[in-house]
């Protein structure tokens, strides 16, 4: 992994071919098919992961142990010909293990930077909520600004850059809840859920005698993904749809069931996500339906329930659904 001091440009950026929404559908279709060789019966989870990748976001995968969280994260990395690193979060993990550290080199008589686990295109953070809050916070700068600052020097991270973090529910033994600022850096959260009986039977056949990850090869590369990201950024969003998106996010701030609504960062990330979602559907424009489809995975992990909602045993997902339903939907026809 090459490093560069902050010069205003990202590593590996250069003259790359211009891609379109049609390329997004074709290339991501291959990536989806590759991932589904490993993850059976989870099309919605795979598609959400691809949305996060194209939106230049980060993904939080939360569920009980053994349902394929880490397998999904690894499959994403394996399907793209780029650098992948896995960081196993444990209570004794140090922030320098993630960001890197400067070490004295006796031969050159100077400090030499040793990059940490964050220096990769796809970073798999396994069981992120088993590390201390201090170590978890070491990811904040990297996830938001795509750079690492160590000993006064800033190192830029290669594009694309995506953190796929897995966590067990906070009721599990030995876990620390993620701080609000940390959760807000993740574009979306998904829950894998248990497979259907048919999918579990298929898993016994495909996983029982060998590891399917070992047979999974890359179907695209980092340069192509960067081109797809640029194509997604050009997807048209009508003013009425933007107003609707802002109204949906604003509804979380006025809901009596929430004591903390979604942040302005949530609005920006929801906009990027709906553009990627529309592109995956083969459209070069966004509709209100796209906003409705992604409101829960993008917003639910950022909000805090009020005491009233907790006593009523409401979930954040239920509250977001209700808030979205109360916002007036504009005309779905795109206006250019």
TrEMBL record:
One GO MF term attached to the UniProt entry: ATP binding
Residue intervals of the ChlI/MoxR AAA lid domain: 251-321
Superkingdom of origin organism: Bacteria
ATPase AAA-3 domain span: 58-187
Gene3D superfamilies tied to this protein: Magnesium chelatase subunit I, C-Terminal domain, P-loop containing nucleotide triphosphate hydrolases
PANTHER family: METHANOL DEHYDROGENASE REGULATOR, MOXR FAMILY PROTEIN
Protein name (database record): MoxR-like ATPase
Naturally occurring in which organism (per UniProt): Microlunatus flavus
